[in-house]
Amino acid sequence: MSENNVETKLPSQIIFENLKEFLRAKNAAHESIFKFHWKKMWPFNRIWPQVDFERIVRLMAEIRKNIISQQNLVITAKEKAKDFEKNFLNAVPAYLEALDKSCQGLSDIAQWKQDMLYKKIHHEAKLVRDSKSYNELLKTYEKEQADLVRAGAFVQAGWIEVVNAPRQ
């Protein structure tokens, strides 16, 4: 039965599943940095370990590498795509580019936070100057997130065409 499922999967279905996995990983990193959690409050933050920003930077680098291979998969999938898959496959490269920029922005924020932790430990932090650069990173990331959402709308519209298409 599983062999039959593998044979009937369209290239666009594989790409869509990969996109969902990339987005899940990125969203998990986003939430660990920005989402409020009671474990981050004092005195609980002395008991539980804090966010591992270095790990987030590595995860974003890994996702960005996978995006490159995904772009190559989209190119090969376009060659053998059926008509109803073309809108989806045409929207994916812009989405991958937006996801790449968003991952880079999140990685920059995580690296900034890691650097601040290091500076705080060594009493080198100058909050006024450092918070200005952090605000710039946040504004850039917010714009990249908005671009990702806009590109995602086109991918979703293309995906609906794939789902609703009659199968031969």
What does this molecule look like?
The protein has 168 residues and is mainly α. Helix content is 79%, strand content 0%. It contains five helices and no strands. The chain starts with a helix and ends with a helix.
Topology:
Layout: H1 2-8, H2 11-34, H3 53-79, H4 86-121, H5 127-164
Through-space gap between termini: 19 Å
Task: Tell me the radius of gyration.
Answer: 20 Å
Tell me how many strands there are.
Answer: 0
Helix content: over 70%
Low-pLDDT windows of residues: none
Shape: elongated
Strand count, sense and barrel status of the largest sheet are: none
Strand content: under 5%
Count every helix, treating DSSP H or I runs of 4 or more residues as helices. Answer: 5
In a few lines, what is going on in this structure?
79% of the residues lie in helices and 0% in strands. With 168 residues, it is mainly alpha-helical.
Could you list some keywords that capture this structure?
mainly alpha; 168 residues; single chain
